[in-house]
Amino acid sequence: MGEVYAEVELVNAIEQGMADRGLLRQDEVARMTVRALVDTGATESVLPGHVADGLRLQTRDSDIVMYADGREELVPVTDPVAIHAMERRVIEQCVVLGDEVLLGQVFLEQADLFVDARRQRLVGNPDHPAHRVIKIRRVSQVPAGVQTGRY
After folding, report:
1. Is residue 151 pLDDT above 90, yes or no?
2. Given strand 81-85, what is the order of strands in its sheet?
3. Is this model's pTM higher than 0.90 or not?
4. Phi-psi sector, 80: left (phi>0), alpha (psi -120 to 50), beta
């Protein structure tokens, strides 16, 4: 079994939000398509500095990352990035590190995707392969005025 890569589109989520509100033209939104390594050992997704710069992402916070060998390092965390893969969209803050885009467990969980290591690819959750399903804990009371059910 080898490494699993996926082609993903990365979009500056703040700029996309501005474009959705008419404050920026859609063609001005920073976006790029990249080949990303799916890293089931990483919690969060990782962007190299040149990708974060190309997407015009700001870094406002830093987090400590722990490498597989136990070393720790303080690294910057990006503004929100929309990650599109297999017709699924996840918005995630990423750590800025290294020279390769990595998709971590947060992305996989939110996108409801699994790794098919034998065929070296991402696949939709077998229980609902055509779309993602977001798991939540049961809400005991629905606030007044909120409708429930399918829309």
Report:
1. no
2. 59-66, 72-78, 95-96, 46-47, 102-103, 31-38, 5-12, 81-85, 88-92
3. no
4. beta
